[in-house]
Amino acid sequence: MVQGYVNMNHQEKLLTFYKVIYSERSIQPMAARIVAEETERMIIATKQLFYAMVIHKLLHFENADMSAVSFAMTVHGLMDYELDQKYGYDKEDHTENNLIGVAKLLDEKE
User: Fold this and answer.
1) 86 CB contacts (<8 Å, ≥6 apart)?
2) Which residues contact 71 (CB under 8 A, 6 or more apart)?
3) Which end of the chain is more exposed for a tag (fewer CB within 10 A), N or C?
4) What is the pLDDT of residues 42-59, one digit of tens each?
């Protein structure tokens, strides 16, 4: 699940779109709205997945809503962090982020 989301967001055209939207969100209300709506969709999809896992007795959560929000925002934050590292450093200063490894590890636990 996580690896698929990461792969989708690393497509060249989508990555370029994210760079533009993220750079404009603090000064353009429409860009901020797009980012907020996409984040909300990601949270909703994660909640639906977690509810399905509970129904099928694959996982148990004390609070599925909070767990889904925490999980989705953690993945979201890690992806932002990866982009900041990738584009915020010179090539020789940049150390490869381990997000892909984290995503694979999380997927293996499913």
Assistant:
1) 94, 97
2) 46, 50
3) C
4) 999 999 999 999 999 999
Pair of tokens at residue 67 = 């767990």
**What type of residue is 43?**
I
Rounded Cα gap, residues 74 and 76, in angstroms: 5
What DSSP letter does each residue of the chain carry, written as one string?
-HHHHHHHHTSHHHHHHHHHHHHHTTT-HHHHHHHHHHHHHHHHHHHHHHHHHHHTTS---SSHHHHHHHHHHHHHHHHHHHHHHHHHS-TTTPPPP-HHHHHHHHHHT-
Q: Is-contact 79 98, C-beta < 8 A? A: no
Q: Distance between CA 40 and CA 10 in Å, rounded?
A: 19
pLDDT 10s digits, 86-107: 777 765 555 554 555 556 556 6
Report the predicted TM-score, pTM, of the whole model to 2 decimal places.
0.71
Tokens of 81: 């962090």
